[in-house]
Write a structure and sequence with these properties.
Blueprint lengths: L17 E5 L6 E2 L2 E2 L3 H15 L3 E5 L16 H11 L5 E2 L6 H9 L5 E3 L14 H8 L4 E4 L22 E3 L1 H13 L7 E5 L8 H7 L5 E4 L3 H8 L3 E2 L9 H13 L3 E3 L3 E5 L8 E4 L2 E2 L4 E5 L1 H12 L3 E5 L12 H12 L3 E5 L1 H10 L7 E2 L3 H8 L5 H7 L1
Parallel strand pairs: 1-4, 1-7, 4-6, 5-6, 7-8, 9-10, 9-17, 10-12, 11-15, 17-18, 18-19
Antiparallel strand pairs: 2-3, 13-14, 13-16
Helix pairs in contact: 1-2, 7-8, 9-10, 10-11
Length: 396
């Protein structure tokens, strides 16, 4: 998927016009305070472009999963306050509802260079249902439409698909362009060796991406709990580690297909194990001989060294998914080692997926990556070769 047929922001006339812009402000909150404003900052280039050209900006986003009804803790007031701080403006007008007379009055009252934020889209059931009436209500707030929410582009919702049918003039935002260009590069001609590092809990979550990448990569590194399924499929003993027993035949098939296509498939050779994730006592053992009563919660140091050597020689690296339960300090070493190895390499590097992005930030190595994606599910689906409905809607 590329943006060749999608209108560009630079070609959109926004002066003195109301611009309805989908952003991804689904930020983590704790006690009503924003813990990480990365997604807000990522949208600033597009926001500032529109405001700097005299646009009257109406932003819309979801936050959390309120399931179609107002839930106070998912209100966007903290986001409006933080956005005003980042923009250096006195106020970002927050509407009481995302549609209706109140929202329409706010949008009509905007002047050139002003910005409003609609209350949480998912307070209304019409958002996730891509309801036509709700889509028309959103479209009535503006003259043109911009989608800059890559993190929601894989969802066929009212704000990403439905509204685009009712606003003739539309364009991709700068963040959306950047995301598609970086991830699209991984699906085209790349510098080799091309190394994909995949982790996380379940093989079932990554079937599509593995199958698509097997035709493209030179080395496939598999860590995290999903590696246990591959190790067990090859006859290894994994103790009490998480294994998808129903996916053992698939793991064997994928292993055989990798060999048949000349793809080097690397699995952990050692693992950090414990009786439970909360246990203080840990040990490093052969990843293929985990004792009964113990489970693997991280790759071991030899695996990290082996994976790091491969990464150091790569021309292109994709990373999606942690190597272990990195939220616990005693099981974070493998994941942090991957962040360090990729950041230190000369390869074109992309990291996607919420957990691995969080690990990169935890490592302090974010600047060492060429692209840190803001969209977990969207980046996965794009890497699987799927067409993202939010992007397709801009081209129609």
């Amino acid at each position: 998927m590329d943006l060749a047929s999608v209108p560009k922001l630079a070609d959109l006339n926004v002066e003195s016009r109301r611009v309805l812009m989908r952003v991804d402000f689904n930020v983590p909150l704790a006690d009503g305070a924003i813990r990480d404003d990365t997604r807000i900052r990522a949208a600033l280039p597009t926001i500032e472009h529109i405001l700097g050209r005299g646009g009257r900006l109406v932003l819309m986003s979801h936050l959390g999963r309120p399931k179609g009804r107002p839930v106070p803790e998912y209100g966007l007031e903290p986001v409006a306050v933080r956005l005003a701080e980042l923009l250096g403006v006195g106020e970002v007008h927050l509407t009481d509802s995302c549609v209706g007379d109140g929202a329409r009055r706010v949008s009509l009252d905007l002047r050139d260079g002003q910005v409003a934020l609609l209350e949480n889209l998912r307070f209304h059931p019409g958002e996730t249902a891509n309801d036509e009436h709700f889509s028309r209500g959103l479209a009535a707030l503006a003259d043109v439409y911009v989608n800059d929410a890559f993190g929601a582009a894989h969802r066929a919702h009212a704000s990403t698909v439905g509204v685009a049918a009712f606003l003739r003039e539309k364009a991709a935002g700068l963040l959306l362009e950047k995301e598609v260009a970086a991830i699209g590069r991984l699906l085209g001609e790349v510098e080799r060796p091309y190394v994909a590092v995949l982790g996380g809990a379940k093989v079932s979550d990554k079937i599509g991406i593995i199958e698509n990448l097997l035709r493209r990569v030179d080395v496939l590194v598999i860590g995290g709990a999903m590696a246990n399924t591959f190790i067990a499929a090859a006859g290894g003993e994994v103790g009490g580690s998480l294994v998808e027993r129903d996916k053992l035949p698939l793991a064997r098939d994928l292993t055989a297909r990798a060999e048949g296509q000349g793809v080097r498939l690397l699995l952990p050779v050692d693992a950090v194990v414990a009786a439970a994730v909360d246990s203080e006592e840990t040990a490093t053992v052969d990843a293929r001989a985990v004792p009964d009563g113990r489970s693997a919660f991280d790759i071991g140091p030899e695996s990290a060294r082996l994976f790091g050597e491969v990464i150091s020689r790569a021309g292109t690296v994709l990373w999606n998914g942690p190597m272990g339960v990195f939220e616990r300090e005693r099981f974070a070493a493998g994941t942090l080692a991957m962040a360090g190895a990729i950041a230190a390499s000369a390869a074109f590097s992309v990291v996607g997926g919420g957990d691995s992005v969080a690990a990169v930030r935890q490592s302090g190595k974010e600047r060492g990556f060429d692209h840190v994606s803001t969209g977990g599910g969207a980046s996965l689906e794009m890497l699987e070769g799927k067409v993202l409905p939010g992007i397709a809607a801009l081209a129609s």
